[in-house]
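Lab notebook, bench 4. We co-purified these components, and the gel suggests they stay together. Before we commit to crystallization screens, I want a quick structural picture of the whole thing.
Request: model the full complex, all chains together.
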Amino acid sequence: MNYEAVIGLEVHVQVKTASKIFTRVAQGYGQPENTLTDPVVLALPGALPVMNKAALDAIIKAGLMLHCDIAEVCKWDRKNYFYPDSPKNYQISQYDQPICLGGYVEIELPGPSRNVMGEHKQIPLTRIHLEEDVGKLTHFANDSLVDYNRAGTPLMEVVSEPAIATADEAYAYLTALRTMMIYAGISDCDMEKGQLRCDANISIRPVGAASLGTKVELKNLNSISYVRDGIAHEIKRQLALVKSGGVIVQETRDYDGIAGTSQSLRSKEEAHDYRYFPDPDLMPVRVDEAWKTRLAAECPERPFDKQRRFMTEYAVPYTITSVLVPDRALSDYFEASVAAAGPAKAQAVANWIINDLLRELGAAGQELGDTKVTPAHLAELVGLIEAGTLNSNIAREVFAETFTSGEAPAAVVERKGLKADTSTDELEQWCRDAIAGDAKAREQFLGGKESAINAFKGPVMRASSGQANPKLVDETLRRLLAEN
Amino acid sequence: MSTALYANTLAELAEQLATGKVSAVELTQAVIDRASTVEDRVKAFNSTQPEDALAQAAASDARRSAGEARGPLDGIPIALKDVIAVKDQPLTASSRMLQNFVSPYDATVTEKLKAAGAVLWGRANCDEFAMGSSTENSSFGATANPYDLTRVPGGSSGGSAAALAAGEAVATLGSDTGGSIRQPAAFCNVVGLKPTYGLVSRYGLAAFASSLDQIGPFARTVEDAAMVLQVIAGHDRRDSTSFRTSIPDYRAALADKKGPWKLGIPKEYFGAGLDPEVAAAIEQAITFYREQGCEIREVSLPHTEHCLSVYYIIATAEASSNLARYDGIRYTHRSAEAKDVVDLYFKSRAEGFGPEVKRRVILGTYVLSSGYYDAYYLRAQKVRTLIRQDFLKAYEEFDAILTPTSPTPAFKFGEKASNPMAMYLSDIYTIGVNLAGLPGISVPAGFTSAGLPVGLQLIGQPYAEADLLAIAHAYDSAHDWRTRQPDL
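Here is the predicted assembly.
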């Protein structure tokens, strides 16, 4: 019998607001322990929560980006359980009236090569709700310490339908979700800082079966790769178990990404009764059309929509868009450069960004935001090349100057006298000499061997000390060869 | 015989302070001296801070002599129930759980009283976490009723009521979840006001039942209560359930708003269990209002019989969750015996909480449990809506509703302590007001033949405290029950 896997993901995303979800204390990572606290965070007697509207704005935006229905009214519930990282011993969450319902995440599966766009799918969502994060426990030999800095950080829980079929799809889902959240400024989604955390519910069933198999919850998936590897491992484990006549038990398993193994944390029998009830300290939230409209206007274009647009509007190939688009700042930089250079030069602009700018940034250990090369500079540089003023070698030199000093390319050219030699008389003479110097190549070219033209280019470039514009050299050679 | 300084009304003392007839230090010293004379018998306070109080009083006098007095409460000694946070002072909720807790912050009402110049002194005893009707559930011993030291002062705000009745403060604050201000006010011959839910911020009030709790004043007269309410009422952005409404001049309303009023007498509040002497006192109050030209008619609040059960589901459910934070981990009592974290929870809570708190936490946990939620909590919320509708329907015809505050006068220590149900029935007339979120006030309405105070309850429309106070003031200002001081 053949089996298929059914995977649902629960993804927690920390929302990047200035202050915590129910109080005005700042949120943040890496601060001294228990400094981001106040009576509300520490759950002192008498402290009361007050909703941070910025966190609501963020989740509504997330819902709009992910095609969700935004509930007209949502409410807050208490999820009751005792654990030392939870100061109130209940978590304020949303139980039966979450703010976002339905929706989907568009994903791209790996293509046959990285130069070919893969298949796109829509993974449906069940809901997205908002809740508060808990503190962090550190265990020692004889005791444990708790840091409440993280407690009360706004946290979105994005719950997918059990509609993911493979580990690769799960990987693509998380990548797409992460890109979207970063795009909209909702979260930085740094998994090392716990800003994005993922649990996976995994089951297998005979191919085509209508009902779902017994699910296993996989926790501690600390990177997107671990999510993929952990899921692949769990599917294999379940298949092996079933094929050897074993029975899958409903349980929560802990995945060890380094060892590539998992072990049982707890079984279903130990499941909590969270005694959810509406939090009497908080009022329900009503979301009106004006609020939604305002936030919709703040939402950026979705990355896949932008990628499709780049490919049609600027005719840049998939490979290039797949580098430009996932980074919103980079894609914005690209569009600004194209706007300055003109759409016809989009491909050249993209090449300069990907081949030169990113390389120089990497070498200098800089971010895009640090660079002195403005989109206008890039447009100017591409313009100089297109005009034949610069050949690509000199252009790289000019770019390096601009990158270091921020001086405009035209000014660099002017100051250093780096202009490509455009004296057609001189160039024409070098070309004539080159053709005369290689009769065999001339014969081959005229006989239809196109590549034979390259044999003349070396001598011309040598004669010009590398200053000649290759495009112009090519044109001149063809003209002269055609004259003969 | 002239009234002792500590026994004057707030209004009189504010006048004396304003005219320089008395200083805040003199007044505060008189209250401290009175407390040192009677406190060993009344036991109204969990803690007092005489030096701090005198320093506040001196600061008040300095302000006044500089022409910077902050209003009628400036220099007035006011005690707070020990469930309201005062920065750098103990906040015990009368529980062993918080025996060593000192609050690092002020409740909103505390901030407001400080801003008004009040001299805050004394943390008034109460039932543990405000759960009870006699103050016998305090972990630190019961408070006695100043009018009969063998009897309870009522509860849960028994210390606040007794301190005021005994002259150990000029006004006090309590909290009222099911009658915890009004019932002790009735037992101790003082005025007690539970404002509309949302009028006074709950920020800094150790929560018992969040959807029912409300802070309110105890005072010697309705006018005094109006003066304290004026300071503590108003929207607070730190409490999401606080209501945005403009605050009228409550004291001015006492004179401005004139009857005759239409008063409803709910027949369900005059049935079995009502002490005949209490009934007689209430009848006299009804007669008074009738003689003032008020239209008095019977009204029905048909869902009254469900109040107690609805209350004990909703209040305990919320309490079970609210009290989860007292866990032995951070600032509470921590068991020295615990072996691991689960053991720490069990032992710390077993040692830190008293029996009534445990009873309610267990009940509340049960009614919220999976499979029981719909049958108990959800249904109780629906009935709660019906109870509120009963009142709102009555207000289509009436300005206020008049009832006894409590079915009996103060009872003896231990009389109901072993029978929770009998104790719960003590709040039968006050609970509906909390469930409906309405304002209610208890006003002294005479004494039984045994010399025990009786309270008259008036229930007003939502956020209509100005009208409610005016109606209560009409009776209060025409009677002098308050001048019958306890014999201490």
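Chain A is about 40% helix and 20% strand. Worth comparing against the SEC data before the next meeting. The CA atoms of residues 43 and 87 of chain A lie 6 Å apart.
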